[in-house]
Design a protein that fits this description.
Layout: H1 2-12, E1 17-19, H2 22-28, E2 42-45, H3 49-62, E3 66-69, E4 86-89, E5 96-100, E6 105-109, H4 114-123, H5 140-146, H6 153-156, E7 163-169, E8 175-178, H7 191-195, E9 204-211, E10 219-226, H8 232-242, E11 245-252, H9 253-261, E12 274-281, H10 285-300, E13 306-309, H11 313-324, H12 326-330, E14 336-341, H13 347-361, E15 366-372, E16 377-383, H14 390-410, H15 435-448
Parallel strand pairs: 2-4, 3-4
Antiparallel strand pairs: 1-2, 5-6, 6-9, 7-8, 7-9, 10-12, 10-13, 11-12, 11-15, 14-16, 15-16
């Protein structure tokens, strides 16, 4: 059956590049979750928008389900192909297309890595400000599909704020040109925004027009050591009051221990229970004085135990490495990940309740905390004990995730801050969305993909 389907696909799209080797099927059929056994039909690597359209027309005629694929750096199972789907990888559509100096927009293909987008923007004397640790491997299309956030959301917001226009291929192979980079456009529903965060369930993003902005002012990076969890939000308030914050990132001593074992340099002689990496604009003597005023105020109140401020770009990168290398350092330990958010004002109470919940529920597990405190986003990583079976570990973790979802619901939070729902979190979607909202989402999906071909099983079941 698979040979017959692939023969018909080759006939429909003769120039299409296909991969069917077992190693390729495994590589392209999964994302960073590693919880499902990949089992795709094949890997299609179109070289043009027209080939993407042709593949989707073929899929519609043959009733073949399709999983769009970017860099596959997601943590929610959103790019998993485990049930014979065709993986449609956009990695060959990876180039910049045009730059408009007047509009200050950069149009790129969806498979372009985020780091390459940054470099293309810098060549024009501008920046694309969305950024995170996976910049070298994630793709702009995947960022759009999950409305990715990252480390500078506190200053610049999520991906959604920087998308001026999209070209999207529908399940039937039609090409939609959404918003066309207009600043003002009140002509009905904004389908561009609907596509952002839809996880490839409504259409396949093939091109994006990105808004660029001026480079940020000179900045410094500071690492702060905190004596207790309770003072975290006090430190945030003190620095935000005095400084133009670019980032405010939190992690625990356990996270630091794993990063140091991964090769990072030890920042302090003493071990402290909590740490913050913060980046802030600083351009003159008044800015430098504001930094020291914030630091000294926190020291005087006992909110900060120690600190170090970068004296060079190299040192700034070393300090950022302590936060950005956490995910990579934890990977060998097969972590179970939660990626949640609440309003910033709700963060202190939510953190206290969640820490108590996880301390009681995971007494025999190592739990690693880190996140974007400045925008209410927290990452919770539970590490699998060496002798525990993976299935037993996931079962125990999912029981506690159900409790965590209830806490989030009480605080009006989200079970997914920036990685999407995918397969991992769809059982908890109702903790974030009401029954009426979910019904409307189902209706939208049905209207745009009535045969259910695009990324089946993600977000919710049919």
């Amino acid at each position: 059956m698979s040979h017959s389907l692939l023969d018909s696909l080759h006939a429909a799209v003769p120039a299409l590049r296909l991969k069917t080797d077992p190693g390729d099927l495994e590589h392209y059929g999964r994302d960073w979750t590693r919880r499902w056994t990949p089992n795709p039909l094949a890997i299609a690597l179109p070289g043009s928008v027209e080939e993407v359209q042709a593949v989707m027309r073929w899929a519609s005629e043959q009733a073949v389900k399709v999983v769009p694929s970017g860099g596959r750096t997601g943590l929610s199972g959103g790019a998993v192909a485990a049930n014979g789907e065709l993986v449609l990888s956009l990695e060959r559509l990876n180039k910049p297309l045009s730059f408009d100096r007047v509009d200050r927009t950069l149009t790129v293909q969806a498979g372009m890595p985020l780091q390459a987008v940054h470099e293309a923007a810098r060549e024009q004397g501008l920046v694309y400000p969305v950024d995170f640790a996976a910049r070298g491997s994630c793709s702009i299309g995947g960022n759009i599909a999950t409305n990715a956030g990252g480390i500078h959301v506190i200053r610049y917001g999520n991906t959604r704020e920087w998308i001026a226009g999209l070209k999207v291929v529908t399940a039937s192979g039609e090409l939609l040109d959404l918003n066309r980079a207009l600043v003002k456009n009140s002509s009905g529903y904004d389908l561009r925004q609907l596509m952002i965060g839809s996880e490839g369930t409504l259409g396949i993003v093939v091109e994006a027009t990105l808004r660029l902005t001026d480079p940020p002012p000179p900045s410094n990076v500071m690492l702060l050591a905190l004596p207790s969890f309770e003072v975290l939000m006090e430190v945030f308030a003190a620095f935000r009051q005095r400084l133009q914050l670019e980032a405010f990132e939190f992690f625990t001593d356990i996270a630091l221990r794993h990063v140091l074992a991964h090769g990072a340099a030890k920042p302090f002689e003493e071990v402290h229970p909590y740490y913050v990496v913060t980046e802030f604009a600083i351009g003159d003597e008044a800015g430098e004085a504001a930094v020291m005023a914030a630091f000294e105020d926190c020291m005087a109140h006992g909110w900060v135990s120690d600190g170090v401020i970068s004296q060079s770009d190299a040192q700034a990168r070393q300090l950022w490495r302590l936060r950005e290398d956490i995910t990579e350092a934890l990977a060998p330990h097969v972590p179970y990940k939660n990626d949640v958010s609440v309003r910033i004002s709700q963060m202190p109470v939510f953190l206290a309740q969640t820490m108590q919940l996880l301390g009681e529920a995971y007494p025999h597990f190592e739990v690693v905390w880190f996140g974007h405190i400045g925008d209410g986003n927290l990452h919770i990583n539970v590490l699998k004990p060496a002798g525990m079976a993976q299935a037993d570990f996931v079962r125990d973790c999912e029981q506690v995730t159900r409790l965590l979802a209830q806490v989030l619901k009480r605080h009006g939070g989200s079970i997914s801050a920036e990685h999407g729902i995918g397969l991992v979190k769809k059982a908890y979607l109702d903790s974030t969305r009401s029954p009426a909202e979910i019904a409307l989402m189902r209706g939208i999906r049905q209207a745009m993909d009535p045969a259910g071909l695009l990324n089946p099983g993600k977000l919710f079941d049919p």
